[in-house]
Amino acid sequence: MEVNCLTLHDLINPRQSRLDFAIEDGENAQKENIFVDRSRMAPKTPIKNEPIDLSKQKIFTPERNPITPVKLVDRQQAEPWTPTANLKILISAASPDIRDREKKKGLFRPIENKDDVFTDSLQLDVLGDSAVDEFEKQRPSRKQKSLGLLCQKFLARYPSYPLSTEKTTISLDEVAVSLGVERRRIYDIVNVLESLRLVSRVAKNQYGWHGRHSLPRTLRDLQRLGEEQKYEEQMAHLQQKELDLMDYKFGEQKKDGCPDSQDHQLLDFSEPDYPSSSANSRKDKSLRIMSQKFVMLFLVSKTKIVTLDVAAKILIEESQDTPDHSKFKTKVRRLYDIANVLTSLALIKKVHVTEERGRKPAFKWIGPVDFSSSDEELVDVSASVLPELKRETYGHIQFCAKQKLARHGSFNSVQASEKIQRKVNSEPSSPYREKQGPGGYSLEIGSLAAVYRQKIGDKSQGEALASQRVMPPSSCLDTSAPFPGLSVDSAYRVNPLGHQVVSVAPMDMQAFSAQNGVSGQGGLPLASAASDAESLKPALLAGQPLVYVPSPSLFMLCGSLQEGPSPGPGAERDSRGPEVTVAEQSTPPSVQKRLGEERKPQEEEEPATKRQSRDCEDGPFSLVMSKKPSDSTDVAAPKAVGNRGSAPHEDIHVDGQLPAAKEVSGKATAPCLISSEWGNTSRNTEIEKPVKENESAKEPSLLQYLYVQSPAGLNGFNVLLPGTQTPHAVGPPSGQLPPLGVPCMVLPSPTLGPFPVLYSPTMPGPVSSAPSALPSTGPVNFGLPGLGSTAHLLIGPPTMVNPKSSALPSADPQLHGPCSLNLSPVMSRSHSVIQPESPVYGGHSVSVVKLQQSPVPVTPKSTRRTHRETFFKTPGSLGDPVLRRRERNQSRNTSSAQRRLEIPSSGAD
DNA sequence: CTCTCCCGCCACCCG
DNA sequence: CGGGTGGCGGGAGAG
């Protein structure tokens, strides 16, 4: 039957040779999630291109019809409109608001997009083939169906930090339906989440959502296990071997300590709340185990970069499988699956390590590194911690301040933002995933724990903040001084939003400027445009570089930055650059050496200073934070900082220092952070342009957010800084954003994970005005209290993608709109703002926001989970895929349509 | 070509 | 036995 159907389809739609039920496919829905514009997105549905599973098609039930509509276009007869379709239409009609938003924002709304798309598709159908064709053109790519995207959608449904009181139960069937995917895919996601204890199985088909509260603890545990297993050593060995030999030899590598059986070592997934079904039944959950092991590798890695081949080899060894190539391939596939989920969680980002053999796919840990504080929730920013931060290698800034930010950043928001950006960035064609250059993550600046800022030349602030200052590259400081005023604590944990601003010593600033200039920018004016007046202002002060210590989310950003350094000068940075950096970090000594060699030439060319900046990836700053993720105890102690675990992912720049990095085998590594591309060229022109383009209108004073775009070369790292608290600013997607031209650097500390630094070298004049107000005294909170105060950083896709700047620019524009939207309102709390996609975020952000302002920690509540869910559930998505098995069960899902209706309301608000 | 990784067959396992 | 799980790897999209 199916076959026949296919045939028919094909006939009907030549282009879709495969069948397109795609529309129906949940996957499409995923695609939808992607930022692609609706217009673009629309295609998804109809187009479908993918081979859809016949099975799915079979499955089609009325519920899925949503999809059908698309087909309708093609071959309506095949699937008559279903009530669902009609419903969708009605809904859409009913909720113009939503549409508008979407249109405006476009970006948000993953699932909804589907609907929209769907609707559109329907309309299109009506319209005619031409429309369809367009869709096809736009049709979502495979990437849109990616597990990572799906995972984001999944995560969007639940609050990152649910209230303890709230228990969220996840119905796999329901989720599968709502996300429009087969349940099998949900298993993949859930298994990974379970490995991190974000969820636990409650019963058949039922999982309990725990959120990220315990993530720090889990990570800490994993880190400990990893250490026990001596993964670090194993990795080092493997890396070297690889260098030597391509093929894998397993066996030898294992080291002493690590016996293969790591399975045992794995954490227990079960959770208190939900009695886990104890799942360990079966095979074990290899995916779960693999996931934990994979995470362990990052946690024990100094560089925080793990290449897939190394990870696969280690896993194979442990499993004692015969190291055949097929095994290896399979492991790698699984690792990708895991990596996609982890990426969605903002724990890792993709990077490439350049080795002799060539580039190797790898992932860099961008999640929290410091688990010293054992638990999740509280973030303690003890002053003591701060000292830890140290600069390392190249001159990078040292952070004196440290805090344990929360390990919990507002990931959701991050995720959401990521989605958004992706959407924005991603064009149908462009890969939105991590790879995509343009795509980026958006982070909430709010998460930043502290901001350091300094005016160039102006010491006053520096003095004030003396304790906390950023050191110039060469110098290292340890500031033990806690942020003045900062009481991060619990609030942070809950919401990373609380930001503190620290002024940077003038000297430092100068250094920066120098660097920047050196870096190639020709000199960036370091001025940062920030609106001082507002909470944010501080950060934005013009002329002052700002350093933020962000929360985990920031980390993510940072990570991304690192990754994708854009070419300084031009947009183009060769791909190599970034890679190199990574390589340095991650790669074994030998490799690093090579890298170093490679760079040498560059170095020669560039002045030392320049180099540094470059090294940093062009980032004006490089931060070095060393932190070790050692045991909790260690954590407490500030000192150890740099050593152990911390690896400067960003070492990249450091040419000379690379050697240190080598240490891979050894524990100590010199971490360097690099900023990415921003540094040089990017900053001005590139970055600004995009912004300007979109938001030429930006109002300096008014600007609430500083929007920094990554240079073309970058992966599209964009930073939004909320200059002002005004919520509205956030809200308006497009124009409002005051994407200042201000370039912001976000520096994550590899080791510290928690302390990414955000730096904005220069600010546009206008912008600056507003911001100026920062109280020099101390840390300032960026975020506004509830609103959009939170700044968002948009980071390009994790992967390095591109050298080509071109993409970025284009992306930017889109981003702006969406970003703005997402940023403020969504995140903040204003739920209303949030779109379907954002809903989740909204929840988080909300909490976060609160935190910022009020000392009281805000708990992220899932204020709206329910709603969210509804949001996400799109009827359309339902359709497809799922079904097979589920058909039976699934009747429940149908309700989604109604839910959708709700969505608008919520969103609208 | 390589890198990704979607997709879904089909084996486990549990009730 | 049926159904939930999820290992596994073919094969194709993307670069």
Describe the protein in words.
The protein is an alpha+beta fold. 44% of the residues lie in helices and 8% in strands. Helix 35 (807-828) crosses helix 36 (839-853). The longest helix has 22 residues, at 807-828. The chain starts with a helix and ends with a helix. The chain binds a DNA duplex (15 and 15 nucleotides) through helix 13, helix 19, strand 6 and helix 39.
Which short descriptors sum up this protein?
909 residues, alpha+beta, three-stranded antiparallel sheet, 40 helices, globular, disordered C terminus, DNA-binding
- Strand arrangement, largest sheet? 8-17-14-13
How many strands, what sense, and barrel or not for the largest sheet? 4 strands, antiparallel
Tell me the structural class.
alpha+beta
Q: Which consecutive residue ranges, at least 5 long each, have pLDDT under 50?
A: 1-137, 245-265, 270-282, 374-909
Average pLDDT, to the nearest integer? 43
Count of DSSP helices? 40
Q: End-to-end distance, in Å?
A: 46 Å
Task: Report helical residue fraction.
Answer: 40-55%
Beta-strand content: 5-15%
Gross morphology is: globular
Radius of gyration: 25 Å
